[in-house]
Amino acid sequence: MAETGKIAAPQGPIHRAIPEGDNRERLLCRDCGFIHYQNPKIVVGAVVTWREEFLLCRRAIEPRRGYWTMPAGYLELNEGASAGAMREAWEEARARIAVDGLLAIYDVPRLSQIQLIYRAHLDAPEFAPGEESLEVRLYGWDEIPWTELAFPSVHWGLKHHRESAATGDFAARSQTF
Amino acid sequence: MAETGKIAAPQGPIHRAIPEGDNRERLLCRDCGFIHYQNPKIVVGAVVTWREEFLLCRRAIEPRRGYWTMPAGYLELNEGASAGAMREAWEEARARIAVDGLLAIYDVPRLSQIQLIYRAHLDAPEFAPGEESLEVRLYGWDEIPWTELAFPSVHWGLKHHRESAATGDFAARSQTF
């Protein structure tokens, strides 16, 4: 509590405590009482192909600036998951993608993420770097810069896509990492 | 800003504005500058069977107090999705469930929810109401109280489970509602 004549700046939800009726520590603000419930986040993305090639973006931002990724990012409020994957492809690669189905669900509790990765294709090889990309290009399977991929899920997505195409089994994978 | 000698209570993140470098309105606190990024939430749950019967819980809490649901709730930070479904079955139905696989992903943008619903079974018909349940019981398919189910996803889950059992196709469904 601030003393009269000496106003302390509010600190925001930085204090750990268990709210009444709850059974876990949450972050709360001692000034206004706001409880900041933190929840796992949903990442949506797509393995995007043009004929036999894969669309990858070289990241212009941290983390992993300079490394290659598929278009992906956080799902927004009131956004359908495949619509979110389409938005990310537009934002990062200026690509209009057609979504063919759900490729995989990656459950990554270490990062508190559920990733929904779609299979998608381009109807024309039209793309360009968005604000978060340095470069966008198509790679044949044997050209993919495996050692310069930004995140493990880029590996997983590309490999699951390859498996689906090889086996004809397009059922969504579900895997915990 | 509070005047000297007259301290206004902080209000918490209730003001809508677009933070610098962002492109959407977020809720922020004018007192401490905290930005409350709201994200869609992940619900985890399970259609749980004992032999040919389905485990349902009558809710002791709002919303939909008195109506029947499968065990389900919000995924916690750093929790695997199937582990979350097991925790919810314990909390709501004092049931130790064995998870057999992912039954379905329900994408509900209207509610900003992604629901991951598992197929699970009991190894023994042992259960009891947890704090959030008035009653827990097993229902044969023809006894299910269809008009007293708490949420549409309880219908969807039960029907998808029935379809999987009938067709032998246990690939996870992916559907937007």
Compact description:
With 177 residues, the first copy, chain A, is α+β, with helices and mostly antiparallel strands. Helix content of chain A is 16%, strand content 36%.
Q: What class, by secondary structure content of chain A?
A: alpha+beta
State the CATH class of the largest domain in chain A.
Alpha Beta
Radius of gyration of chain A: 20 Å
Elements of chain A, N to C (H/E): EEEEEEEHEEEHE
- Average pLDDT, all residues of chain A: 92
Q: How many E strands of chain A?
A: 11
Shape of chain A: elongated
- Low-confidence runs of at least 5 consecutive residues of chain A: none
Strand content of chain A: 35-45%
The number of distinct helices of chain A, counting runs of at least 4 residues, comes to 2
- CATH level 4 superfamily of the largest domain in chain A: Nucleoside Triphosphate Pyrophosphohydrolase
How far is the first residue's CA from the last residue's CA of chain A? 45 Å
Assembly state: homodimer
Overall number of domains of chain A: 2
Which pair of chains has the greatest number of interface residues, and how are they split between the two chains? Answer: A-B, 44 and 44 residues
CATH architecture descriptor of the largest domain in chain A: Alpha-Beta Complex
The main pleated sheet of chain A reads as:
8 strands, mixed
Describe this structure in words.
The structure is a homodimer of 177-residue chains. Chain A is elongated, with a radius of gyration of 20 Å. In chain A, strands 4, 5, 6, 7, 8, 9, 10 and 11 form an eight-stranded mixed beta sheet that branches. A three-stranded antiparallel beta sheet of chain A has the order 1-2-3, with no helix packed on it. Helix content of chain A is 16%, strand content 36%. Chain A is an alpha+beta fold and 177 residues long. Chain A contains two helices and eleven strands. Chain A folds into two domains: 8-38, Ubiquitin Ligase Nedd4, Chain: W; 41-176, Alpha-Beta Complex (Nucleoside Triphosphate Pyrophosphohydrolase). The interface between A and B is large, with 44 and 44 residues.
